[in-house]
Amino acid sequence: MPSLFQHSADRLAGAAPGWLVETVRPAPARPDPVAMARVAASITGPLLAALAAGTITAGLLPAMGAMAAALADRGGSYRARAVRVAGIAAGGAAGYVAGHAARGLGWWTVAVIVAVSVVSALVSATGAAGSLGGLQLVVMTVLGMGVSFTERPLTGAAAYAAGAAWALLLSVAGRPLRPRAAEESAVAAAYGMLCALVGRWESGRAEAVAAFDAALKNAYDTIMSARSAAPGPDAGRTRLVALLNQAIAVRNALMSLGEEGLDPGPEVAEAVGAIAGVLAGGGLPARPPLPAGSPALRAVCTAVGEALDLATGNRMPEPQAFQRPGLRARAAQAWERMRFGHLARVHTVRLALCMGVAAAFSELHWTQRSYWVMLTVALVLKPDFGSVFARAVQRGLGAVAGAFLGSLVLYAVPYGPAILIPLAVFAALLPYGQQRNWGLMSTFQVPVVVLLVDLLTGAGPRLAEIRLIDTLIGCAIVLVFGYLPWPASWEAPVGPPFADAVTATARYLRGAFGAGPPSTTAHRAAFDALADLRTVFQRALTEPPVVSRRVTTWLPAMTALEQVAEATAATAARARHGAPAPTGEAVEEVAVALEDIAGHVRAGEPVCGRDVRPAHGALEPVAGAVRNLRDTLAARC
What we know:
By secondary structure, this protein is mainly α. 73% of the residues lie in helices and 0% in strands. The radius of gyration is 26 Å and the shape is globular.
């Protein structure tokens, strides 16, 4: 089967350089009209309410809070959405208060911006909600300093938070009717991708496996984020988790067919399609007959049959013990990430330096609205948004296109409420641009911000030109001070996550044959690590050629590691259905060899250590894959 890493490289390779097409999320086939309508209503709703009250400018701060919250809504459980929006509201409100207090302090504002940037970077290391809240802390501090809002500090903070709450309300409006809708949809999407995998077994299998793994990871994350706040066991959620665990069993059984040179067959495709149909809201199907035969085929039919029983309610999963982590434990984990994370420390220094330079530039008053320079720096330097180089280039290109569009609107539309019409159009296009790449999102975001600011200032078409110049200056600051001088920018950041993925694969090997953590848990950890490695690989390919060329030298090793994980899954599935099981000594021998490889990679040493003796029998495909991994890494030295 073609490698998923090779598939990732092929997607990003092509006529255009990687930094022009970079995106860290799969691009949708078409725009989502529901998401587009929700974002447009989130941003324009506060403005329409303020217009009805007689002063449209009173809706600007709520509209900004709503825009930040609406763009942060990327699915997940209702609880996860609420937590993210709470982080945005808290960060933005605190930033507005800090910025309003620091307005007019002259060069002291540079020190304030640096201090706020340090706090923002540390908070961003705590997790998704902290990342979004930290960004809004910096953004609203800058806006509070540079824009003459009429609201007093607490009033403005409350208005911003109210706008974020409005966007959240639109996002979770369906919760009273279907409290687990997000989790159910995520599980249904995973089985939909599993159905696609069976249908594309002969061609396009690599892409289908990648799509299924991504959907499976998203479904687990969605359920676990909701489950972490549950007061006790929940039968509905237990069933959803059991369905995902069974989806893993089906996937691994399908992979075992490759060892026997078989394909799933029409009966298996019909059964998997029936499961996906039930989870998508269809009726209960008649149970299709499933064939029996070799160990791999028996594994597939057993796994599919049990999944069908779960989906139709013919089998109820056993209750699973779950201990909700306490507030103290979560706080301790967040503190550890802030204090000891190397990437967090590097990002803190880079962000503080670049924001300090941008703030100093703003104090020189060489441009009319130079606070936009600081905004650009803050947005481009977010470490969890992808490649800094790609974002800086795409932001600049998007700003050029967006400024042109904004100028056309300001020339054609007179100042006043009529601006809300093109504003709603650009706001509706934001989710689509966000899913495609950073540059397209900037193309739509620049006109939105220009039109919002024009409602306050009435500056007219000149405003778009000012925004363009300041954006380009901000991108230049990021490249000169936040990218070029840093050694990490010129290294291929693949080694550490690769070592982590090898270690996770060793744990999975032990768990798959009863010598380690539970098989399902270990499988999730191993394939999540491979998915994270794939994301690092995709992002690194969007760096300049001097870096991306080094990254591509890892491609054979990544493909070899992927083959180790797939061989482990396939061998375990066959062993549970009649094929000979490996001995504990053979499993430990191969697992220790994997850990030895991980140790050499993590230490930056040549991989030429422990050999793997031929493991005659059941484990030979795994042992052979590990030998291939070791030899591939040794060839890189």
